[in-house]
Amino acid sequence: MDYDIVVIGSGPGGYHAAIRAAQLGMKVACVEKGSMGGVCLNVGCIPTKALLHVAHELLEARHAKAYGIDFGEPMIDLAAVGAWKDSVVRKMTDGVGLLFKGSKVESIKGEAVFTGSHEIQIGDRRLTAERFIVATGSRPIQIPGFEVDGDVIVDSTSALMVAGVPERFLAIGGSAIGLEFSDIYNAFGSEVTVVELLDEINPAGDRDASRELRKSLERRGIRVRTSTRAVGQKRSRKGIEVELEGEEGKREKLLVDKILVAVGRRPNGEDLNLETIGVQVEDSGFVPVNDHLQTSLPHIYAIGDLARPPLLAHKAMKEGLVAAEHASGLPSAYDTVVPAVIYTRPELASVGMTEQEATEAGYRVRTGRFPLSASGRAATLDTDEGVIKVIADRETDLLLGFHMVGPNAGDLVGEAALAIEMGATLEDIALTQHAHPTLAEGIMEAAEHAHGRAIHIANRGQPSPRPSL
Q1: What is the percent of the chain where pLDDT is above 90?
Q2: Of these residues, 16, 299, 326, 436, which one is catalytic?
Q3: Which candidate among 144, 276, 373, 408 keeps its CA 20 to 30 Å from the CA of 287?
């Protein structure tokens, strides 16, 4: 065999798998048909968050006069914004190349196709390996009638090329991608509308958190239309006339200048020849895997977006480590909660169960809430938007879920993820001393609230025992 392990795809899951396998002494190659770093580093997480940073700096500059700093009306140089975003991407993708060199992972450019269960072809080159880890990622789903042209109808990739700011921007899809680009274009000056087919934005999330985020976005001037679908569009000299269908089939027209299609993603894998060599592939394109990320052929692993939802980079990273370790002979398995973040302003971060999921799973649920309007640190940041919500099992007090809307929620969710992994109770969190003033102490206060002993908000829930005198 030419290699111990060949990884197909160099996105977050792929490069983590390749480097970890090399650390364990395996002879490793990583095949990439596109740009090093995959979707996340090139046209996903990294450039999107760079644009969100610019957007939020614009919002800060416009609002600074309220607390004594007057910059005047900020000016946007879109060419400079694009150049800075691209420089961030280059820094990250170049870093992957350096990590490969340092770890002695061979990088191979080209598109891999399985020609046998232990063999792939890349152009005119054939490679053999004992084991393969397939990490080919995903691509945006298209909507009939809203075919992406990269100009006036865009997807998450072409929306990154901000050559001009449209007067009217429509996002079809009210989950993370649609909301984040709506945030960007709103800050840049567009009149923004979000259309979501289901009855709430972030429909897979906790309903209280989703509603809190919706209120914040609407206060920003972003129009949110739920229980609504886009059924057609036609071009005119005035723009794009979009036909919307709401509840009870009521239809109306909306005139916009740019449309983002953000209704989800589908896995890449149909060109790999997986089914021909005996790998099971579902009709949806996902490849079923076990806890070790092995497919129906045990020496072939699938990770990241190809394997299963949620389609998140950090989930792919963890799966890449597990697959690499198991393929290298270690008893590694995937068993962890997956945090999720929407990087709008304010951010929404979640981990574990929603209240509805916990109830449907048979738990007697205990919840605690802490509004950031009661937070001293939030006040010093000049915001009173947001909430922290904790969900626990009433019988055991174990933390089951955490949901936050507010500044830096994406950073704070790590505490809750660790608490769930370690089997922490709300009592553990309530008794843990948090620094003041911080946003993190709101997690402590939410846990206190669940036990009826919060200090800064009205208490409810299970009262604390009365001390005996």
Answers
A1: 95
A2: 436
A3: 144
